[in-house]
């Protein structure tokens, strides 16, 4: 399941980086160490960046926890399993074929790990819980890749008789001027 978590934060060049809650990062660090690789202690910090959303400058600021591993062997292993390298919004990737064509238990493990790191926290709207959802951000040049990835997730969910919907919309522009999109996956609440 470690490789599927990597789809969330991934690799920047050959350095594995994972962010999240400290308890979750301890578990990931232990998994990395259990297969023979080194991993940093948890690093805590503060970050601030500006993005343009709907023509307005928006400041995103907050605290973070992360771990890192610079092992070339770990990088090679994850890359061979289909884990994307670099800025995931600006690269193409898909659900690996060995998962798509694998038995249900492989698909279940993938979905469990991926959704465990990517599903948004439960939301209330007018005293009603909204269905589980996630979002994938993509640049305009990689929008089709993101749609294909979400479509792959939807097909896997259907293997478990779970229905879902996809929507996407323009989101904003990066500092470079590149247009970005958000692709949403909504899991139907009838399950």
Explain how this protein is built:
The protein is 35% helix and 32% strand. The chain is built from 6 helices and 9 strands; from the N terminus they run H-E-E-H-E-E-H-H-H-E-E-E-H-E-E. The protein has helices spanning 2-9, 22-34, 72-80, 97-100, 104-118, 143-159; strands at 11-12, 15-19, 43-53, 56-69, 124-125, 128-129, 133-139, 164-173, 179-187. The strands form 2 sheets. It has a 7-stranded antiparallel β-sheet, sandwiched between helices. Strand 3 (43-53) and strand 4 (56-69) form a beta hairpin. Helix 1 runs parallel beside helix 5. It starts with a helix and ends with a strand.
Describe the structure using short key phrases.
191 residues; alpha+beta; 7-stranded antiparallel beta sheet; two-stranded antiparallel ribbon; 35% helix; globular
SSE order and pairing:
Layout: H1 2-9, E1 11-12, E2 15-19, H2 22-34, E3 43-53, E4 56-69, H3 72-80, H4 97-100, H5 104-118, E5 124-125, E6 128-129, E7 133-139, H6 143-159, E8 164-173, E9 179-187
